[in-house]
Design goal:
310 residues; alpha/beta; UDP-N-acetylmuramoyl-L-alanine:D-glutamate ligase; 10-stranded mixed sheet; 4-stranded mixed sheet; globular; binds adenosine-5'-triphosphate; binds magnesium ion
Length: 310
């Protein structure tokens, strides 16, 4: 069983236009509305990979109801607490002419201590039944920046492994609580180590430096160039198959889902890396914020290369 925690979910509105121009009226050629938020993406993909899971977090207002309904329709087991206010509606405009996306990310509702305590109270019994807790995405206004660190400590006390996928201060503080695995992308890893990572050897060095802070496994994802994974003395380069890229939004969440599933099954990290890399590529194949399908993941799996790094 895998638990995902999404403190600040969102509904993603994707609009496709041609020749985006500021201050002009545009006819929309295509539009989608999808449930989103990193932990929710992970939960949806874990569910598609056939692994039991439950998604926890906060929802608010009509947008929250919409996300809840979408998860129910997809059959994703969830337990969201209701907040006053409104869950985020993030808007991305894709310009067909240039292929460029322009995004507007909302803040999300405010949370108070009572609601944070209720969430912890509700998760506690589930920690006794699961093997992996995934903490993913940004915090919501009102949450302390060390909240992920706190959940990592709670999980460890119950023998639960943790995967942390976030950015900035919540990532830095989370690492101090020694999560099992972290999965920054290149930009997040650069902010974490405080230097630019222009090539694969510099990424390997960064992964080793982060391991030394007390994390068991560090996976730094590099988009189409795959990911560097470091565990103990060992380092691998996971190389995805070349696919016709439509949108990589959610590819990192798909990688996390693959890693979580294999961790839950007690498999070797290499198997998680393989499954996650295939899932990331499958998500890159589909447009907007849609996630890869199990059929695509199965098709791509044998094409993933995992190379030990000398
Ligand atoms: N264009 C692509 N072709 C094939 N595989 C890809 C492509 N883009 C991403 N992937 C796979 O997905 C993994 C994660 O992608 P990426 O590094 O873009 O994550 P991310 O920036 O965290 O994404 P997000 O946070 O939006 O989910 C990569 O390590 C790679 O295996
Ligand atoms: Mg990411």
């Amino acid at each position: 069983m895998i638990i995902t925690l999404t403190l600040n979910p969102a509904a993603d509105k994707t609009i496709v236009v041609r020749d985006l121009a500021v201050g002009q009226l545009h006819r929309v050629r295509e539009s989608h509305l999808d449930p989103a938020g990193k932990g929710i993406n992970v939960a949806r993909l874990v569910d598609r990979l056939g692994c039991p899971s439950i998604a926890f977090g906060f929802l608010a207002g009509e947008i929250g109801t919409l996300i809840n309904r979408a998860l129910l329709e997809e059959g994703v087991q969830n337990h969201f607490l209701l907040l006053p206010g409104q869950t985020r509606l993030n808007v991305t405009i894709f310009d067909e002419a240039t292929g460029a996306g322009t995004s507007f990310w909302d803040r999300g509702p405010e949370v108070d201590v009572e609601h944070l305590n209720s969430l912890e109270h509700d998760i506690q019994p589930w920690l006794g039944t699961c093997r992996v807790l995934v903490l993913a995405g940004s915090l919501l206004p009102g949450a302390r920046e060390d909240i992920y660190a706190h959940y990592i400590e709670l999980a460890r006390a119950r023998g639960v492994q943790t995967i942390l996928d976030t950015d900035g201060e919540p990532l830095r503080l989370g690492i101090q609580a020694r999560p099992t695995l972290i999965k920054p992308n290149l930009a997040e890893a650069e902010r974490l180590v405080g230097r630019s990572l222009p090539d694969v050897p510099s990424v390997v060095q960064a992964a080793r430096d982060i391991l030394a802070r007390g994390v068991d496994v560090v996976v730094i994802s590099m988009g189409a160039r795959g990911a560097i994974c470091a565990q103990g003395e060992r380092v691998w380069h996971a190389i995805p198959p070349t696919v016709k890229r439509r949108s990589t939004v959610g590819s990192g969440d798909s990688l996390v889902a693959g890693l979580a599933v294999s961790m839950d099954c007690g498999q070797d990290i290499v198997e998680g890396l393989r499954l996650g890399t295939a899932a990331g590529a499958a998500t890159a194949l589909v447009p907007g914020t849609a996630l890869g399908t199990p059929a695509e993941i199965t098709r791509l799996l044998p094409q993933v290369r995992i190379e030990p790094f000398a």
